[in-house]
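ok trying this again, last paste got cut off
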Amino acid sequence: MQPHELAPLTERDIAEYLIQNPGFFERNAELLAAVQLGSSHGRRVVNLQERQAEMLREKIKVLEHRLVDMIRHGSDNSITTNRLLNWTVQLLLEHDPAALPEAICAAMIDDFRVPQAALRVWNVASPYAGLPFTQGVSGDSRSFASSLTSPYCGMHVGVEAVKWLPEPTQAASLALIPLRPAGKSTAPAFGLLVLASPDSQRYQDDMATDFLERIGELASAALSRLMIEPPVLRDSLADPVPHTPA
């Protein structure tokens, strides 16, 4: 290139100039009306102001849709929270520990609109051993439940727990919620709550599990009344340390 030759202007050069010189269109206002652009609503030609107005309206529509979605999600969350609160009250009012497993599953079906629910617990105190909610649990199921660090959501995985459902063949998607002692997220599970739906999209592997985790925590706390009393606590109550005179 000869010294007196200039590089051709690019679109980027023009854009940079306009950014660096915001007063350009103030000094050349007639250009705003002269610039003709294609409309997003058909093949007609519009001036710059009209095109800007169209873009602004489109942005407003997007924001309106987002606002509607936020309101809808907020309403859905409020409904779910109220259901969770009512369910918790029912658990607190249940005085018979042996009735809790059935009450938990019934609430899942009636209050949370879950098509199928089943629950099993193990390591229960002797008065509850042999009841239906302790049956059909193999060592593999116990190990599987303990391996879950959070609720599993997704397609039918062929685990034994599916057989606990009234209609296992109708379970297209599952939520498997491990039950553990309160505040002990790494402790072995003492139970497993199974929720199932014929809708393969009801429980997906990328869905949020916050409410399912709260359900697991509340169910675990309620079902702790069925468990064997911890040996350390039992021994400390039965054999108090004698007082030694000074």
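PB: full thing came through this time. The longest helix spans residues 48-93.
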